[in-house]
Amino acid sequence: MKITQIEVFVLKTELDTPFAFSQGWVHQRAATLVRVRSDNGLVGWGEAFAQGLEPPEIAAAVIEHALKPLLIDQNPLDTAVLWQRMYTQTRDFGRKGSVVSAISAIDTALWDLAGHFYQKPIHQLLGGATRSSVQPYATGFYRLKGKNEASRLADEALAHREAGFTAMKVKLGFGVEDDIAVMQAVRMALNDDAVQLMVDSNHAYGRSEALRLGLALDELNLRWYEEPVVPEDIGGYVELRAKLRTPLAGGENEHTPYGFFPLFQAGALDVAQPDIGSCGGITAARDIVAIAQACGVAVNPHVWGSAIAQAASLQFIAALPVPHASLYATEPLLEYDRSSHPFRQDLVTEPWGTIDGMIAIPKGPGLGIDVRMDTVEKYQTN
Ligand code: CA
Q1: Please, are residues 19 and 25 in contact by the beta-carbon 8 Å criterion?
Q2: Residue 368: inside a domain, yes or no?
Q3: CATH code: domain of residue 7
Q4: How far apart are CA 324 and CA 164, in angstroms?
Q5: Does residue 367 belong to any structural domain of this protein?
Q6: Ligand 1 center to residue 171 CA distance, Å?
Q7: In the annotation, is 302 catalytic?
């Protein structure tokens, strides 16, 4: 079997209402999708994670110009071999960011294609399902104005709970005092501890502000405090982790086992959050989990992309072991972006919903999805 074709689809759409996270205003949703074909007619889909401020054309150019020549005529089942080739051949200008996101999209597509070849879901190829369903948590609480939105955000928390979410993550990083006011309003509105809360500042602060916020958050019994400082500041994570009770999470802006290893070695994280669409795909995420397990760190994938990225995350979570096994071990959650995204769910023929607050892991071959070409073509810009 040989890879005969690799197509890249750049999808974009302007948002009617832009929203902000701590790093800026998001005006569009975008995705870099890839479709790999083999000479026996099999197809695999993958997606490169496009950050809110990241032009999707970067990963598309990497796939087109740097990766495609390495892959055509190769055996698509050689997922590990091809990962090494893509990584080593881009090492001198890659290792992080959009280059590794491009590798991630290809790697995911190869696993999807392999699943269709073996007629098994990806989680079966990874060694089987540790769980058949996963609890989603609502990611939202973006800003529509900027500061002073505590009461609207408290209402949003109630709306997520009304929609069946019992776990949710609040965006912070808009000034420590504003952040504290938001969290007090949200906690007061929910009025009980049955809802699990997490926060995410998207590395808005330096160590001292991150600590001041963290000490206030310690009173709220959060599941985790995400990206308190910039991803480069491993020492900052270590310092905060020593001074705070709240578990620290991070890793959506880290890449490959080479990038995660120093974080684990330093004891920087309680929860590692590789994004399958940017950490190097399924192949890299599997290796990241192996190192995390050895270091006693939980892995809970980050996902903010379209249905293809969500499907990859679902397949990966199905196979994910818990770091500390027990009768009532803490299970991983599926990040479920509730912010505006015009084509996220429309990309697949059977979008998933929740049953009793849980999302079932698709059992079909590969990613377990059928991609809708009418949606791809509607939003395609390349
Ligand atoms: Ca985040």
Answers
A1: yes
A2: no
A3: 3.30.390.10
A4: 28
A5: no
A6: 8
A7: yes
**200 and 282: one domain?**
yes
Asked whether the CA dihedral 123, 325, 287, 234 is positive or negative, the reply is positive
Distance from residue 202's CA to the centre of ligand 1 (Å): 6
Element (H, E) at 13: strand 3-21
Q: What's the 324 CA to ligand 1 centre distance in angstroms? A: 24
CA 160/CA 194 separation, integer angstroms: 13
80's CB contacts (< 8 A; 6+ apart) are 283
Ligand 1 center–CA 88 separation, angstroms: 28
Q: Which two tokens stand for residue 263?
A: 């974080």
User: At residue 352, what are phi and psi to the nearest 5 degrees?
Assistant: -85, 150
The domain total for the chain is 2
**Structural contact between residues 303 and 309, judged by C-beta atoms closer than 8 angstroms:** yes
pLDDT in tens, the chain (382 residues): 999 999 999 999 999 999 999 999 999 999 999 999 999 999 999 999 999 899 999 999 999 999 999 999 999 999 999 999 999 999 999 999 999 999 999 999 999 999 999 999 999 999 999 999 999 999 999 999 999 999 999 999 999 999 999 999 999 999 999 999 999 999 999 997 789 999 999 999 999 999 999 999 999 999 999 999 999 999 999 999 999 999 999 999 999 999 999 999 999 999 999 999 999 999 999 999 999 999 999 999 999 999 999 999 999 999 999 999 999 999 999 999 998 888 898 999 998 888 889 999 999 999 999 999 999 999 999 9
Using N-to-C axis directions, what is the helix angle for 307-319 and 281-295, rounded to 10°?
40
Pairing of strands 24-38, 43-48: antiparallel
Residue of 203, 255, 302, 341 marked active site:
302
The residue segments making up the domain with residue 223 are: 123-360
This prediction has a pTM of 0.97
What is the Å distance from ligand 1's center to 225 Cα? Answer: 10
Strands 248-250 and 271-272: parallel
DSSP letter string over 42-94? -EEEEEE---TT--THHHHHIIIIIIHHHHTTS-TT-HHHHHHHHHHHHGGG-
